[in-house]
TrEMBL record:
Gene3D superfamilies the UniProt entry points to: lambda repressor-like DNA-binding domains
Bilayer-crossing regions: none
Provenance organism: hydrothermal vent metagenome
Secretion signal, residue range per the UniProt entry: none
PANTHER family assigned: ANTITOXIN HIGA-1
GO molecular function: DNA binding
Name of the protein in its database record: HTH cro/C1-type domain-containing protein
Keywords assigned by UniProt, alphabetized: DNA-binding
HTH cro/C1-type domain segment(s): 12-66
PROSITE patterns linked to this entry: HTH_CROC1
Length: 97
């Protein structure tokens, strides 16, 4: 049985808890609508390139970290949803030169 993919909002939630800041306050500091970070934490919104840039700057990390979390989540979720169908696709055989 495969594990349920972890939404990047869960990781963000843990970070905010450790720091002691609310999601709404982080939204304010990121200069985004106040509901953006709470929606990400609730798993109702994905981390966009815009948000990744802002989170990267605020946390002193690369924006790629946040985008990679999002893309990894999406790939794992898709693999769970359509993995059996993907398994039926044959791999292309390259012809010898």
């Amino acid at each position: 049985m495969s594990r349920t993919p972890i939404h990047p909002g869960e990781i963000l939630k843990d970070e905010l808890k450790e720091i002691g800041i609310t999601a709404t306050e982080l939204s304010r500091q990121l200069k985004v609508p106040e509901n953006r970070v709470p929606q990400i934490i609730a798993g109702k919104r994905n981390i966009s390139a815009d948000t990744a840039l802002r989170l990267g700057k605020w946390f002193g990390m690369t924006p790629a970290f946040w985008l990679n979390l999002q893309k990894s989540y999406e790939l794992r979720k898709a693999a769970q949803e359509i993995g059996k169908e993907i398994d039926t696709i044959s791999t292309r055989v390259k012809e010898s030169a």
